[in-house]
Amino acid sequence: EWLTATELLYGNDHTGVRPGDRPWILEGADVGTPSRERLEAYQAGGALIGWNIAQLREVYASDGVVLGAGMDDRSSADRARSFRHVLDGGSGLFTPQPDTMGYKRLMYRPARVLPPRSGTTPPAATLSTKG
């Protein structure tokens, strides 16, 4: 079904943050790599007010998410998982090239894996200003 799907389900490094979205790891639909620009876009949409980029990256790190794909350098980690995308049950957060089957398969089908929720939320931060 994903091969013929036409609706992009996840924002990513190639699409930018869609209005009102927030990071996948915090139950949003954006799987882009955390950056200051992405955080500013979330905040412009009313999410993650009061956060800074270090806090956002810490949420990913506390859940074992590896930014980028490839060998995880932690000796206790399952290294093969870091080659798989978080939407595929892995620990890698990266965006395949848009004209590839990997991009289509990841971005156009519902994820089988729910975002991990470490509970690591900076105390002064809010996920959203919307009730």
Keywords:
20% helix, two-stranded parallel ribbon, 131 residues, 2 strands, mainly alpha, 3% strand
Write the layout of secondary structure elements.
Layout: H1 36-44, H2 53-62, E1 66-67, E2 92-93, H3 101-107
Parallel strand pairs: 1-2
Brief description of this entry?
With 131 residues, the protein is mostly helical. Helices cover 20% and strands 3% of the residues.
Q: What do these coordinates show?
A:
There is one protein chain. By secondary structure, the chain is mainly α. Helices cover 20% and strands 3% of the residues. It has three helices and two strands. The chain has helices at residues 36-44, 53-62, 101-107; strands at 66-67, 92-93. A two-stranded parallel ribbon has the order 1-2. The radius of gyration is 15 Å and the shape is globular.
